[in-house]
Each structure stands twice: as structure tokens, then as C-alpha cells.
Design brief:
Strand order of the largest sheet: 2-1-3-5-4
Number of strands: 7
Order of helices and strands: HHHHHHHHHHHHHHHHEHEEEEEE
Strand content: 5-15%
Helix content: 55-70%
Distance between the termini: 55 Å
Radius of gyration: 23 Å
Number of helices: 17
Length: 433
């Protein structure tokens, strides 16, 4: 584990990194929880596990985002370790190598780890739970499955079925896991006054760019996303593994059923974001490695499969790398703009802080304002931060060319423009007019 943390920390020191909207909001919630309580309004749908990490990370102050980035990348690396374990169990070293290579080539793996999403931990916990079950460690599988259930509700049907199966073997562990899951998901929103179903309401409130819900046929788009996310060659190799082995067939049925759950959820109004499919995609990658390794000439078969997958995913991998570069530039640009203004404290002293809707978590995190306190586009006193017009942070939302009435341009730095009702002095920062 120490080596994984060192690799994750080194990666953010030598390569671009940034945080997507959700992890930024989790950090804001963790920062504000001790002093202001938890308010999930104006944020993403609530997930309990990240908050258990971001709350203590808040003690690190400005270093918290980088520390979360390390945590997220460590999860992605653990997913590779879990893929290796299942590969060894299914088909020896050759299958394990194939499982790791195909997982690492999947666009979800590198991208979600780079922008701090929790999908690395989701894949790691699901794959590790499968490995534990294959090894007969039911208690470990229950705990690991519950960890996955604290990250995504699509896991719940499978977790519930496993609880029923495991009840006679470990009733106390099952009961404890069920209680933890229920309390962790429902209690924070209930105690915060948001209502027990607030997370579900938020999840249906809007779909980010690239989500299946934005397509003409959302359920069919989920199926297409699953096929392209894993790669056609990998899907065929996974089917080959399932045809040979009862254990592989069970894992394959899990992957198919998981995709079906996400597809059905889009019919109910949920977004169907491609990253929701990560547990299924990770399972397919593992099966594909076993499928190729089980042929008469495993090494050439694996080489061809990996090459085909790399070619098929090359475009998405390039797009993901460009997106991370742009997000990294926007992250550093916002810090430069706030510093040029005179600092976050001076900005808060000037009045309400404004930004466009998609960048509210980013601005809340870097200015120290609670998420509900980031005002939307309104005229009057205060400060408005506008991101670069072509930044992926804007999520297809047009970036205005000027701030609201009553504010003027006072800083332009790092691609960001800062409009304020307060003036900026090079020596003293902004001063009220």
C-alpha cells in the first residue's frame, strides 16, 4: 500500500492534475462540516464514503485538493491490483497481465483517477469483493461490497442479493453492513434538513455532458457506452472466457446485469453517465484477459487483444488527456486570478461571490465560501469569477463576456476574468469604492 501511495503522490508532482466537480464539492462539504454542518444543496448527489475522507483532509487547508487527488489515484492503482488478483485466480499470470493492461487502457481508468473521481475506489472495492468471494473470504467480500455500496447506489441490488446468500454464514456482518449503508446514506441529508431522498432528487436534476440522458434513446446509449467503454475486442474475449468457465460466466452475468441496472435507471430519469458503468467495465476487462490467456497461444492472443484495445481507445484517451491538461490550467489559473485580486479573504470581504453554475464548486473550494453561498448570476455588489471561455469546466454553459451590472473587470489572469464592485490595488488588494 505504501508503494501505491508513493506512486500516486509522484504522479501529481510530475503530471497534470485537477479535480472534477464532484470531488471539489466533497472537499467543500468536508471543510465546512465542522463549522457550518452539512448542506448538500447546490452540490452533486450525496455519497457518504468521500465525506469520511474529505472531512479529516480539511485539516490540511490548501493542500487538501492535492491530497484528495493522491487518494483518488491510489484507488485507481488498487483497482489494477484487484484486477491482477482475479486474473490470477481465473487464468494464471498471463490472464492477470491481460486484466491489468486492459483495465489501464480503459479511458475511465486514467481519466477518473486524474480528475479525482471515486471510480478507482469503486472498481477496486467491487473487484476485490469478487476476489474475496472466489477465495472463500465471505466476511471480507461483505465489507468490500459495502464500501462499493457507499459509493454508488447501482451496487445495492447486487449487494442485497449477496447479503441474502451470506446471511446464514455471517448474519452479524450482514446486519452491520446493512445498518452502516442505511445510516450513511440517509442520516446526513435527514439531519441536514435536505430530506432522505435529496440524493436521488439531485441525481435526476440534470445530466452532465456525455451522459446517456442527453441522447434520444438513453437506455440504448448506455448499452453503446458499455460496449465502447470496454472495447469490442475485449467484449468478445470476455464472452470467450464466460463460455469456458462457470466462475467467469458468473462474473460476466454480473457485468451484464450491472449495465442493465444503469440502463433502466436512465428510464427513471437518472443521468446514465458513462462512469456509472465502471464496475461492469472493470469486470469485462478482467474476463477479457482470462479469455485471451485461455487460448492455445496465450501470449500472441493477449498481444493482439491489447493492441486492438489500444487502437480502439486511442481517440478517447487523447481526448481525456487534453481535458485533464485544460482542467489543470484552469485550476492554476483560478489560483492566479484570486491571488491577483488580493486573496480569497479580500474577495469575501467585498460581498457575495458569483460564478456560472458549473464552476460553483471550484470557486467555493478556492475562495473558502460554502457551496450554497456561491451566488449565481446576479447584479449588484460582490465579485464574479468567469472561467476561460473554452474550459471543460463550463460543461457546455456559455461563459458571459462581461460580469453582471454593478461590477467591472478588475483582474484577468490564467484565463479567468474577475469582475467586482471593489477596486484592486497592487499593494493593498481590492478596496471598496
Amino acid at each position: 500500500m505504501t508503494g501505491i501511495v508513493v506512486i500516486a503522490a509522484t504522479s501529481i508532482a510530475v503530471a497534470p492534475w485537477a479535480l472534477a466537480f464532484d470531488p471539489q464539492a466533497w472537499l467543500v462539504w468536508g471543510r465546512d462540516l465542522p463549522g457550518h454542518g452539512l448542506s448538500t444543496a447546490d452540490g452533486p448527489s450525496f455519497k457518504p464514503l468521500p465525506l469520511l475522507v474529505t472531512t479529516p483532509l480539511a485539516l490540511a487547508g490548501g493542500a487538501a485538493p492535492a491530497l484528495w487527488a493522491i487518494v483518488a489515484r491510489a484507488g485507481a492503482l488498487l483497482a489494477l491490483a484487484a484486477a491482477w488478483r482475479i486474473g490470477r485466480l481465473l487464468g494464471g499470470t498471463a490472464a492477470a497481465v491481460g486484466a491489468v493492461a486492459l483495465t489501464a487502457l480503459a479511458p475511465w481508468w486514467g481519466y477518473n483517477g486524474a480528475v479525482g473521481n471515486s471510480e478507482g475506489w469503486l472498481a477496486a472495492s467491487v473487484l476485490a469483493a469478487i476476489a474475496a468471494q472466489l477465495e472463500g473470504r465471505v466476511g471480507a467480500a461483505l465489507v468490500l461490497g459495502t464500501i462499493a455500496g457507499l459509493l454508488r447506489p447501482e451496487v445495492w441490488p447486487f449487494l442485497g442479493a449477496y447479503w441474502i446468500w451470506a446471511w446464514r454464514r455471517s448474519p452479524r456482518v450482514v446486519a452491520t453492513c446493512a445498518a452502516v449503508l442505511a445510516v450513511a446514506w440517509l442520516a446526513p441529508d435527514v439531519l441536514g434538513g435536505e430530506g432522505a431522498l435529496r440524493a436521488a432528487d439531485a441525481a435526476r436534476a440534470g445530466a452532465s455532458s456525455g451522459s446517456a440522458a442527453r441522447s434520444a434513446h438513453p437506455a440504448l446509449q448506455v448499452l453503446a457506452d458499455a460496449a465502447t467503454g470496454a472495447g469490442i475486442a475485449a467484449c468478445l474475449a470476455a464472452a470467450l472466457a464466460a463460455a469456458r468457465s462457470r466462475v467467469a460466466r458468473a462474473i460476466g452475468l454480473f457485468a451484464v446485469a450491472y449495465v442493465a441496472v444503469v440502463a433502466l435507471a436512465t428510464v427513471g430519469g437518472y443521468a446514465g453517465n458513462p462512469r456509472y458503468l465502471v464496475p461492469a467495465l472493470a469486470a469485462i476487462a478482467v474476463l477479457a484477459g482470462a479469455g485471451a490467456a485461455g487460448t492455445r497461444r496465450p501470449l500472441p492472443a493477449l498481444a493482439v487483444l491489447v493492441a486492438l484495445t489500444a487502437l480502439g481507445q486511442a481517440g478517447d484517451l487523447r481526448t481525456a488527456a487534453l481535458d485533464v491538461d485544460q482542467r489543470d490550467a484552469a485550476r492554476r489559473g483560478l489560483d492566479a486570478a484570486i491571488a491577483a485580486y488580493g486573496g480569497a479573504k479580500r474577495m469575501r470581504a467585498c460581498g457575495p461571490v458569483h460564478t456560472i453554475f458549473p464552476t460553483r464548486a471550484h470557486v467555493a473550494l478556492r475562495t473558502g465560501v460554502p457551496l450554497p453561498g456561491i451566488k449565481r448570476w446576479t447584479a449588484g455588489p460582490g465579485t464574479t469569477l468567469l472561467p476561460p471561455p473554452l474550459s471543460p469546466l463550463r460543461e457546455r454553459t456559455p461563459v458571459p463576456t462581461r460580469g453582471p451590472q454593478g461590477q467591472r473587470l478588475v483582474v484577468r489572469a490564467g484565463g479567468w476574468s474577475v469582475w467586482s464592485s471593489c477596486e484592486v490595488s497592487s499593494r493593498n488588494g481590492p478596496a471598496s469604492r
